[in-house]
Amino acid sequence: MRASRIGFGCAAIGGYDYGPVDDEVSLRAVEAAFDAGVTLFDVADIYGLGHAECILAKGLGRRRKEVVIATKFGVRWDAQTRHTFKDISSGYARKALEASLRRLRLDCIPLYQVHWPDGTTPIEDVLEELDRCRKAGKLRAIGMCNFDPHKDGGAIAEFDVNTIQLPFSLIDSCHRAAFDYGRNRLGVRTLAYNVLAHGFLSGKYAPDSTFTGSDLRTRKNSFLQGDADANWRVVELLKAAADRLGVTPAQIAIRWALNQSSVDCVLVGAKDVAQSRQNANAINMTLPVDIAAALDEAAKGLAGRGYAKPSHAQ
Ligand SMILES: NC(=O)c1ccc[n+]([C@@H]2O[C@H](COP(=O)([O-])OP(=O)(O)OC[C@H]3O[C@@H](n4cnc5c(N)ncnc54)[C@H](OP(=O)(O)O)[C@@H]3O)[C@@H](O)[C@H]2O)c1
After folding, report:
1. CB-facing half-sphere around the CA of 20: CA atoms within 13 A
2. Looking at ligand 1, which residue's alpha carbon is closest to its atom 37?
3. Which of 121, 152, 247, 277 could join 251 via S-S bond, C-beta 3.0 to 4.6 A?
4. Which residues, listed in sequence order, are joined to residue 76 by a DSSP beta bridge?
């Protein structure tokens, strides 16, 4: 299976985690990504409680069978109360897979990912079930998000897991070792998420920016994570580099992540056509050596400050 190195992340088009969105605008953003050469679309059943999968299928139309759609399961919800909880039991995996196939209007999901550990289910149990579904032709490849490959390497090898997905950005690169281990020792592909640190690295926000409603930036705010002053200095670096190169800070942050040998693909969320095109076009730019070195240095200073810090992080 081949896919573009830049993937379109569908969390925002669910209409919840990044505030309300206009579905018509989301449909055009999906189309724009495809037109710009993106062939990897990362979604989850939980994004907008199924809504993001429906919008993605509609936005891609017939083209949905030509691309790699990567969806996830493992965060359940109560449709009435909207209460969410983690569940990766094999019984729920089967139900969730059928529901995603229906919403995505597919017979087979190209990449089906376990979203989070649930603290109860042994990973081997769910991978065994997903392996059965793969043999039955319901999915082509298995991925794991937010798991530690050092800890679960045995299961990853035993059940032929194809991808791991973890957060990774200029201000949060503490999973570099996990990605390196996954790629080099386990032979999996690595997918980086939150590459723009929830939009922070786009350079359009200021320390006094505020968010409202269900926007996740009201609760888990990258702006306030770790060393805020150092994070803002990274934004200033990005802005200066963007001015010099005639691109946007977001494109530089994406290109920097793509340049890391630990990273196979980056997943970037977009809410409209302009963001979608801009993000996809980062593939065509080159970072001058001095800018890349300054960003590497800044990232090194911030590594290990991520909010999903695993036990092996520096
Ligand atoms: N496996 C997991 O547990 C997991 C967790 C999180 C995410 N993901 C995946 O990774 C994808 C990316 O993560 P994310 O969407 O949470 O965060 P992200 O890519 O770091 O940030 C996305 C947000 O940044 C802003 N943005 C995007 N492009 C921009 C541009 N060119 N210029 C200015 N602002 C821009 C938009 O919000 P505003 O315009 O409102 O600022 C957008 O919603 C998700 O969509 C999802 O597919 C996976």
Report:
1. 3
2. 199
3. 247
4. 85
pTM reported for the whole predicted model? 0.96
**47 is known as an active-site residue:** yes
Burial class (CB in 10 A: 0-12, 13-18, 19+), 312: middle
- The domains of the chain, with CATH numbers, are 6-302 (3.20.20.100)
Q: Which amino acid is at 110?
A: P
Residue whose structure tokens are 């300054």: 294
The residue among 228, 208, 214, 72 whose CA lies nearest residue 146 is 72
User: In this structure, are residues 201 and 193 in contact, taking their beta carbons and an 8 Å threshold?
Assistant: no
- Using CA atoms, how far apart are residues 294 and 241, in angstroms rounded to an integer? 10
User: Whole-angstrom Cα distance, residue 70 to residue 89?
Assistant: 20
What six digits make up the tokens of 289? 């050596």
* Contact yes or no for 157/164 (Cβ under 8 A): no
Amino acid at the residue 200: F
Q: What is the pLDDT of residues 136-187, one digit of tens each?
A: 999 999 999 999 999 999 999 999 999 999 999 999 898 999 999 999 999 9
- pLDDT band, residue 309 (cuts 50/70/90): very low
Strand ranges for 87-187 from DSSP E: 109-114, 139-145, 163-167
Q: Which residues touch 294 (CB under 8 Å, ≥6 apart)? A: 237, 241
- Could you tell me if 52 and 44 are in contact, meaning their C-beta atoms sit under 8 angstroms apart? yes
Q: Which of 16, 47, 92, 112 is catalytic?
A: 47
Pocket of ligand 1 (CB under 6 A): 9-12, 18, 42, 115, 145-146, 165, 193-199, 202, 204, 248, 250, 267-271, 275, 278-279
212: three-class secondary structure by DSSP: coil
